[in-house]
């Protein structure tokens, strides 16, 4: 190839690469071309300009000057089309890098790069090499009649001379048995690709001859003494050896492109599923008989270990079909049936990995037989037994229940519970395909009207639908219309409950029925409208990813009570998810606890466990197991079979633990004590605590603690009071969270409201108004809490109230105060009872302090004022007793002396307190006051 031709090829290749990466062609610079071909820049520039003059390239003026092919637009269109390499299973996943390397190797000028394929036996090296050959033909690097010559070096490894003769050819008499001239495979591959498998089996002499061919493009036949002959071939080698082995280092030095193909265990479940479908299709083409494969057989093929990779998977599928073919011939069945019962043990062992890959398998929706069959004489179709309609499934389930002698009433109950499960499984089978694919199996009119309805429903009920619902619902509606035309009944046993529970969605479905009637002149029955409603209700669960399912454990006293309940539930649901544990009366509690703990650990998939028990010690096991394992557990006692059925059914739908709990508890009103969540049952055993916290220091919190302790006269349960100092809101939140986790937190009493909205919060004002009594009486009905009168020190139930207006000065008109100061008059009694100060005197000077701040628009709320009163009283009490008040980190955050105005206002407001009570408050107290105003 001439240099100018190489330049043209480089520009074309780089332009195509630009479009694939950027979606547009920007052009190629002279420097890029020179670098790619290792030529001088002037030579590259001259060739580029010559190509422009010849009308083969377009020159884009600018800095730098760029060049692109005139047919870039056409190239851009071609780039969007999938190549044969892109069509390989896994090309966009595990083989993505390998495909990219292969394309680069073929396109690299002038003739491409020799390539070494690495991988274990059976990974598909031969197939990959052949696909590279077809790709080279498709893009024009090789002619349509170019040869692809494959040779396995292991076939002649025992006879090195014969191996070399096969590869390079031989002259008559060049070795014993060479009775005529032989043309070698290298010569036959001229102009195409030579694929050498198991290349590491070449003899040292053969390796040297191959390396000479790679380096020079020249070879000589055995016994040939004339000059070397030249060939233009692309060599692809393959080996199972490690690339780092001494043997292969010589290869990797000479072969620039090394492509490693992944083993089957490194490929995704989705890729393996595509491989399985491909191999079953190949068998259908071979035997011309439909093949029906059970879901368990498919799961086994998806999960078992294949030591020999894709090659073994293909062989095992062929063998399973061969075994099933004998039964097909003998029984004269309609389909050849492959089920798990006929599979060898080493394939069935794959089921041990079911739990590990449960999520991936659920996405595939393998719940029914799948039929591989020939359509239109040549096309292989993969048909889900349940693809066309869910009605057949429901009818079959009803028929099975009737055969078991179940009453119609119970059948209706069970089917009502199961409808949402079937619809969810039905929709889960459909992937995000394009509309053109959907139009091939459903009338375009049905698809379009369904799409129109979903837009309407989205706006009507304010819900965004997933991509899957269009495909699932379109196919369902198509089946519905056909069923109505045929006069078949549509029955929805859960219609009344659907109308009641999902009124908005049902109204939207009614609108859809009108659209369908107007479009197809078919009256949609109410029962079908119920089904449509469940499609739009359950769409949010389809494709919603949870790490696992909630474990369901039924534990009861007796020899078979729990296991019998579980057996009924599992059989009705067609699954084996729920687990039963029978506890004979003579079994020791310690033994039962250890065994159930193991069950919990085995059945926890990361979403917790719901335990359904009868009574006694089993009720407490949830807490004990949680303490030892930290696995979230919800326990429901006095469980019944319907409750077990509902818990298992919801779990199979991947409904979260909380939702399952509420669904089960709402199922029946006849439930004994229920622990609403894991923390409820844990709290039954934990210490009860009340947290008192203050941002102005721990001293105030201690005073609040003393007040609360004084209120609790008789205790049905021990309640600990924990005082906290709040350094910051984050610090406060972290401390409350830790206490809540370790203790049964009844309430938080503080001037600052916690960020956790689930915590019972009381302000100091609410505490002193008696709100704690209400909280405790709800939690502990037998507890006696004596609440003092807020306006006197006498704690009797009746007292003579004082005249607040005469005791404390009111706020003058026009001042910026959020409340009337006389509402704090009761605090003088609190000061008298819990400090050594004179309450009346303290409140008088506090009023002066409060009014001074109000004059300067410093606002302190009523709750903050109560906290500040307690804090100042504690601080002054300490100073009067000779204690030193430490410095605060808050004062380090702000240099108060830089804000002289604020410092002067706070100082002036505190001065009457200091003078009247003969103390000097440190700057730290100024910080506390401002912090309180900031947080409140």
UniProtKB/TrEMBL annotation:
<dbReference type="InterPro" id="IPR003593">
    <property type="entry name" value="AAA+_ATPase"/>
</dbReference>
<dbReference type="GO" id="GO:0006355">
    <property type="term" value="P:regulation of DNA-templated transcription"/>
</dbReference>
<keyword id="KW-0547">Nucleotide-binding</keyword>
<dbReference type="Pfam" id="PF00158">
    <property type="entry name" value="Sigma54_activat"/>
</dbReference>
<dbReference type="InterPro" id="IPR025943">
    <property type="entry name" value="Sigma_54_int_dom_ATP-bd_2"/>
</dbReference>
<dbReference type="GO" id="GO:0016301">
    <property type="term" value="F:kinase activity"/>
</dbReference>
<feature type="domain" description="Sigma-54 factor interaction">
    <location>
        <begin position="88"/>
        <end position="322"/>
    </location>
</feature>
<dbReference type="InterPro" id="IPR011608">
    <property type="entry name" value="PRD"/>
</dbReference>
<dbReference type="InterPro" id="IPR027417">
    <property type="entry name" value="P-loop_NTPase"/>
</dbReference>
<dbReference type="InterPro" id="IPR036634">
    <property type="entry name" value="PRD_sf"/>
</dbReference>
<dbReference type="InterPro" id="IPR002078">
    <property type="entry name" value="Sigma_54_int"/>
</dbReference>
<feature type="domain" description="PRD">
    <location>
        <begin position="441"/>
        <end position="546"/>
    </location>
</feature>
<keyword id="KW-0067">ATP-binding</keyword>
<feature type="domain" description="PRD">
    <location>
        <begin position="834"/>
        <end position="936"/>
    </location>
</feature>
<feature type="domain" description="PTS EIIA type-4">
    <location>
        <begin position="549"/>
        <end position="689"/>
    </location>
</feature>
<dbReference type="InterPro" id="IPR036662">
    <property type="entry name" value="PTS_EIIA_man-typ_sf"/>
</dbReference>
<dbReference type="GO" id="GO:0009401">
    <property type="term" value="P:phosphoenolpyruvate-dependent sugar phosphotransferase system"/>
</dbReference>
<protein>
    <submittedName>
        <fullName>PTS system transcriptional activator</fullName>
    </submittedName>
</protein>
<dbReference type="InterPro" id="IPR033887">
    <property type="entry name" value="PTS_IIA_man"/>
</dbReference>
<keyword id="KW-0418">Kinase</keyword>
<dbReference type="Pfam" id="PF00874">
    <property type="entry name" value="PRD"/>
</dbReference>
<dbReference type="Pfam" id="PF03610">
    <property type="entry name" value="EIIA-man"/>
</dbReference>
<keyword id="KW-0808">Transferase</keyword>
<dbReference type="GO" id="GO:0016020">
    <property type="term" value="C:membrane"/>
</dbReference>
<dbReference type="GO" id="GO:0005524">
    <property type="term" value="F:ATP binding"/>
</dbReference>
<dbReference type="InterPro" id="IPR004701">
    <property type="entry name" value="PTS_EIIA_man-typ"/>
</dbReference>
């Amino acid at each position: 190839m001439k240099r100018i031709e190489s330049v043209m090829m480089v520009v074309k290749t780089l332009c195509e690469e630009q479009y694939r990466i950027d979606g547009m062609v920007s052009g190629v610079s002279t420097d890029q071309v020179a670098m790619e071909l290792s030529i001088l820049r002037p030579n590259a520039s001259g060739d580029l300009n010559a190509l422009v003059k010849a009308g083969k390239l377009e020159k884009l003026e600018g800095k730098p000057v760029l060049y692109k092919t005139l047919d870039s637009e056409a190239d851009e269109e071609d780039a969007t089309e999938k190549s044969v390499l892109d069509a390989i299973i896994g090309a966009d996943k595990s083989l993505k890098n390998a495909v990219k390397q292969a394309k680069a190797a073929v396109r690299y000028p002038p003739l491409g790069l020799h390539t070494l394929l690495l991988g274990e036996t059976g990974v598909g090296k031969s197939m990959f090499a052949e696909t590279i050959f077809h790709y080279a033909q498709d893009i024009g690097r090789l002619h349509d009649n170019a040869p692809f010559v494959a040779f396995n070096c292991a076939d002649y490894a025992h006879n090195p001379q014969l191996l070399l003769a096969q590869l390079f050819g031989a002259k008559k008499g060049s070795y014993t048995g060479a009775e005529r001239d032989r043309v070698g495979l290298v010569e036959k591959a001229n102009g195409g690709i030579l694929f050498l498998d198991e290349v590491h089996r070449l003899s040292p002499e053969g390796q040297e001859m191959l390396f000479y061919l790679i380096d020079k493009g020249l070879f000589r036949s055995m016994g040939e003494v004339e000059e070397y002959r030249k060939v233009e071939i692309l060599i692809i080698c393959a080996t199972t050896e490690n690339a780092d082995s001494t043997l292969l280092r010589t290869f990797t030095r000479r072969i620039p492109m090394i492509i490693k193909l992944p083993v089957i265990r490194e490929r995704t479940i989705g890729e393996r599923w595509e491989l399985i479908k491909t191999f079953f299709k190949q068998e259908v083409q071979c035997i011309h008989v439909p093949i029906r494969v059970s879901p368990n057989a498919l799961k086994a093929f998806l999960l078992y270990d294949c030591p020999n990779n894709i090659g073994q998977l293909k062989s095992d599928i062929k063998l399973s079909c061969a075994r099933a073919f004998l039964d097909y011939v003998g029984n004269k069945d309609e389909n050849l049936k492959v089920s798990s019962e006929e599979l060898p043990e080493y394939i069935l062992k794959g089921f041990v990995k079911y739990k590990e890959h449960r999520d991936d398998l659920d996405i595939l929706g393998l719940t029914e037989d799948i039929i591989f069959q020939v359509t239109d004489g040549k096309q292989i179709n993969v048909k889900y037994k349940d693809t066309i309609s869910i009605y057949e499934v429901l009818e079959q389930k009803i028929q099975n229940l009737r055969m078991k002698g179940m009453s119609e009433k119970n059948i209706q109950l069970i089917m009502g519970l199961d409808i949402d499960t079937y619809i969810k499984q039905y929709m889960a089978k459909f992937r995000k395909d394009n509309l053109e694919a959907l139009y091939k199996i459903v009338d375009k009119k049905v698809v379009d009207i369904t799409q129109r309805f979903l837009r309407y429903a989205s706006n009507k009920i304010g819900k965004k639908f997933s991509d899957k619902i269009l495909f699932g619902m379109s196919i369902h509606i198509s089946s519905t219309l056909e069923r109505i035309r045929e006069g078949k009944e549509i029955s929805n046993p859960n219609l009344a409950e659907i109308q009641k529970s999902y009124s908005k969605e049902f109204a939207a479905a009614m609108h859809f029925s009108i659209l369908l009637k107007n479009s197809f002149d078919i009256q949609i029955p109410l029962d079908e409208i119920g089904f449509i409603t469940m499609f739009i209700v359950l769409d949010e669960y389809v494709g919603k990813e949870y790490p696992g399912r909630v474990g369901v454990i039924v534990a009861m006293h007796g020899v078979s009570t729990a296991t019998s309940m579980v057996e009924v539930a599992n059989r009705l649901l067609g699954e084996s998810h729920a687990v039963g544990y029978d506890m004979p009366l003579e079994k020791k509690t310690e033994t039962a606890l250890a065994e159930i703990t193991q069950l919990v650990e085995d059945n926890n998939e990361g979403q917790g466990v719901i335990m359904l028990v009868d009574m006694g010690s089993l009720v407490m096991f949830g807490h004990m197991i949680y303490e030892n394992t930290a696995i979230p557990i919800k326990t429901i006692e006095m469980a019944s079979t319907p409750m077990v059925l509902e818990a298992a059914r919801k779990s199979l739908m991947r409904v979260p633990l909380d939702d399952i709990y509420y669904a089960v508890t709402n199922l029946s009103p006849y439930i004994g004590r229920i622990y609403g969540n894991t923390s409820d049952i844990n709290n039954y055993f934990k210490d009860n605590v009340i947290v008192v916290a203050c941002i102005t220091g721990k001293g105030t919190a201690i005073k609040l603690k003393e007040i609360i302790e004084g209120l609790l006269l008789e205790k049905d349960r021990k309640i600990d009071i924990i005082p906290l100092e709040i350094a910051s809101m984050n610090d406060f939140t972290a401390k409350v969270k830790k206490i809540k986790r370790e203790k049964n937190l009844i309430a938080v009493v503080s001037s600052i409201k916690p960020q956790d909205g689930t915590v019972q919060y009381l302000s100091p004002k609410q505490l002193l108004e008696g709100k704690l009594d209400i909280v405790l009486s709800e939690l502990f009905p037998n507890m006696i809490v004596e609440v003092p009168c807020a306006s006197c020190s006498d704690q009797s139930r009746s007292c003579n109230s004082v005249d607040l207006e005469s005791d404390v000065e009111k706020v003058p008109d026009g001042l910026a105060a959020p409340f009337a100061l006389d509402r704090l008059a009761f605090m003088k009694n609190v000061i008298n009872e819990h400090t050594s100060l004179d309450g009346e005197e303290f409140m008088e000077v506090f009023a002066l302090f409060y009014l001074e701040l109000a004059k300067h628009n410093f606002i302190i709320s009523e709750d903050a004022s109560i906290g500040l009163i307690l804090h100042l009283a504690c601080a002054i009490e300490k100073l009067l007793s000779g204690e030193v008040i430490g410095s605060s980190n808050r004062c380090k955050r702000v240099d108060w002396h830089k804000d002289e105005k604020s410092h002067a206002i706070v100082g002036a407001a505190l001065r009457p307190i200091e003078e009247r009570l003969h103390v000097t408050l440190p700057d730290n107290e100024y910080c506390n006051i401002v912090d309180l105003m900031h947080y409140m």
